[in-house]
Specification:
The complex is a heterodimer of chains A (about 80) and B (about 170). With about 80 residues, chain A is mainly alpha-helical. Chain A is about 75% helix and about 0% strand. Classes of the chains: A mainly alpha (about 80), B mainly alpha (about 170). Chains A and B meet through helix 1 and helix 2 of A and helix 1, helix 4 and helix 6 of B. Chain A: Keywords: Membrane, Transmembrane, Transmembrane helix.
């Protein structure tokens, strides 16, 4: 059985770790959601080719950032 | 660590509602501060004042819309738990979709379908991330599942509310 592996102590990861974890998770979810919704909305306004890539990437980063911020706040207020 | 396990059902609604409000208010405060700062006329005084005004007008509003999402979401979630008699990711996904649909009800059926799809997809993503994280965490450290389970249903309302706000 794993006994106290890794940098996270035994019992509970501390507050900052949890906030970081929340941010990472929110960022991942936001990236995925941004990829989906960004593709739709960029196609709708008529972007194609390279332009589309840029648009989708921007939306992904943006929504990942927003999502991650909110998620880390959500983790932060609970510890 | 005890408060980290999810609340039992009726109290979860209150918990989620308040958590969502706080989250929306704080997050809205941060974003609106930046936005107000950038949109004000130049001059440090004007900018600070502008960002203060933006925070005061918009952050509580955003918090309120988060709270509505969170409250309705966990209400439906609890209802589904009672009706179906089990708790699984489908509950959250369904209740996310239903919350989206209900909140868009006044904009007509097309908007309802769109908003429901959005809510469902977001919740599915979050649940998926939660499951992945749980699996990953349980192989990493012993207490993983406990705290990995919680974040999943909570922040969903948040983003939904946020998205709707800017739409």
């Amino acid at each position: 059985m794993p006994v106290a592996v890794g940098p996270y102590g035994q019992q509970q990861p501390n507050c900052f770790d949890r906030v970081k974890m929340g941010f990472m998770m929110g960022f991942a979810v936001g990236m995925a959601a941004g990829a989906m919704f960004g593709t739709f909305s960029c196609l709708r306004v008529g972007m194609r080719g390279r332009e589309l890539m840029g648009g989708v990437g921007k939306t992904m980063l943006q929504s990942g950032g927003t999502f991650g911020t909110f998620m880390s706040i959500g983790m932060g207020i609970r510890c | 660590m005890e408060e980290y396990a999810r609340e039992p059902c009726p109290w979860r609604i209150v918990d989620d509602c308040g958590g969502a409000f706080t989250m929306g208010a704080i997050g809205g405060g941060i974003f609106q501060a930046v936005k107000g700062f950038r949109n004000s006329p130049s001059g440090m005084n004007h900018r600070l004042k502008g960002s203060m005004t933006a925070i005061k007008t918009r952050a509580p509003q955003l918090g309120g819309s988060f709270a509505v999402w969170g409250g309705l979401f966990s209400m439906i979630d609890c209802g589904l738990v009672k009706v179906r008699g089990k708790e699984d990711p489908w509950n959250s996904i369904t209740s996310g979709a239903m919350t989206g649909a209900i909140l868009a009800a006044r904009n007509g059926p097309v908007a309802m379908v769109g908003s429901a799809a959005m809510g469902g997809i977001l919740l599915a993503l979050i649940e998926g991330a939660g499951i992945l994280l749980t699996r990953f965490a349980s192989s990493q450290f012993p207490t993983g599942p406990q705290f990995a389970e919680e974040p999943a249903p909570m922040p969903a309302p948040s983003y939904g509310g946020d998205f709707r706000q800017y739409q």
